[in-house]
Amino acid sequence: MCPGSSGVTPSKKGKVHLHGWFAIDKPIGMTSTQVVSRVRRLTSSFKAGHGGTLDPLASGILPIALGEATKTVSFVVDSRKHYRFTIRWGQRRDTDDAEGRVVERRDLRPSADDINRALPKFIGRIMQKPPNYSAVKVGGKRAYDLARQAKPLDLKPRPILIERLRLIEVLDADHASFELECGKGGYVRALARDLAVELGTAGYVSALRRTKVGPFTMDKAISLAELEALNDSASFSGRLLPLIEGLAGVPNLVIDAEQAGRLRNGQGVPLANRSVSRDGLDLAETAVLCAVLGTRPVALVRFQKGKICPARVFNYSH
Predict the structure, then answer these.
(1) Catalytic residue among 55, 94, 97, 194
(2) What pTM does this model have?
(3) Is 55 among the catalytic positions?
């Protein structure tokens, strides 16, 4: 098999290196870093990274990049995320999820009508203050580390995009379930906190599942248990999603073998003869393109002064 189609590169020592993605269905109770470490150990990968953190108490899609696919992680992190979550009304917890201690109690319980009237305020481009227990950096330190030390925190609201927010069902007086689609940087825990405040009560996320990250959906997912059951490189590559999957939002630029060689050597390529996968694309206004030879990504490139210049080259030789 060729490296571009299988995502597998055999080394001179007979080892097999994987280049691509696993859409892991993360179980509750593990950190994202722990999942990355487990996948890396199971696959003997030299490089691995994830496409967007999930809290330990959350489950669902955690995209894991292996090998050269780690060069595309930032595009997945920036993509839209879909969630299903449940809010528990009447309590506020210091972590804004079920893991924390109760710091406030309220008697009011919102009805479905109350909730639906409040939701429009939280749709579109809004300002959101991250939870104290978050990975936001404050003076070079993570907010969650400062929060655990009971250090005073003054996190500033940040702009985020909430594309869709819908009440699914009022489960009982204390619980309601929701669907959410949001952009980069949005915290479901902060949304639950702020929605509860808008409704005149308190609330926290009692259950959270991520159902989609960019192109990675539940129908492409594999559990850690399923991954552990695979015991050879052929089995791993059979479930591996291609490297280019992480570049679903990046336009493709079709190149020939000579142009591919120039890009791999760090040289620019004139664009006298070019073919772009999207009609009407204005290269002068495009920040990043993916140069492809056949179906194989060669490099991430930028358009500069009439030619494309390599920004990140995909090296399948290791």
Answers:
(1) 55
(2) 0.87
(3) yes
